[in-house]
Amino acid sequence: MIADIISAALIAIGAILVLLSAIGLLKLPDIYMRMSATTKSATLGVGSILLGTAIVFWDIGIMSRGLIIISFLFLTAPVAAHMIGRAAYINKVPLWENSIVDELNKNVEDNEHVKQ
Amino acid sequence: MITDMVITYFAMPVLAISFALIFIRIARGPGLEDRVVGLDVLTSVGIAFFAVYSVFTKNSTFLDVGIILGLVSFLGTVAFSYYLERRGR
Hints:
The complex is a heterodimer of chains A (116) and B (89). Chain A is mainly alpha-helical and 116 residues long. Chain A has one domain (2-114). Chain A is built from four helices and no strands. Chain B has 89 residues and is mainly α. Helices cover 88% and strands 0% of the residues of chain B. The N and C termini of chain B lie far apart (58 Å). The chains are: A mainly alpha (116), B mainly alpha (89). Chains A and B meet through helix 1, helix 2 and helix 3 of A and helix 1, helix 2 and helix 3 of B.
C-alpha cells in the first residue's frame, strides 16, 4: 500500500517535470535556454518515472534494469547537450537579443579545436 | 490500485501533451540544432512513456525498449552534432 502511494507520487512528479520541460522547449526564446530547460528537467522527470516503475514491480531483475536506464541517462544527457551546444555555438546560432554577456566570444577563435 | 489510476488518468495524457509540444517545436524550429534538441528530448519522453506503459500492461519486457532507445538516442545525438560542427567548413 505504501509502496503503491510512493510509486504513484513519483510517476506523477516525473510526468509534471516532463511537461514543464516540453513547455520550456516550446516557449523559451533561445536554443541555449531551450537546452537548459530540456537537459535538466526532462532527465530528472524520466529518472523519477523509472524509479516509480522500479518500485511498482519490486523484483530484483526489473529494478536493476530500471536503475541501469537511470544511470545511463544521467551519464549521457550532459555529454549530448554539451556537444549540441558546442555545435550551435561554432555554427554561430545567435543568442537572445536581450542577453547581457557572451563569455566565449573572445576565446572561441583561439581554440585550436575550432581552428583546425 | 492508485498507481493504475494515476497512470491512466494523469501520466499518459500529460506525456501525450508533452509529445505534441515537442513535435510543434520540431516542426517550427528555426535551425537544424533546434530540431536535434527536439529529437533528443523526444526519445527521453519515449523512454518515460515505455516505462509507464510497462506498468500499465504489467509486462516488464517494455523496459528493454527503454535501454535500446536511450543507447540509440545518445549515438544519434552525438553523430548529428558532429555532422553539424563539420558542416560549416
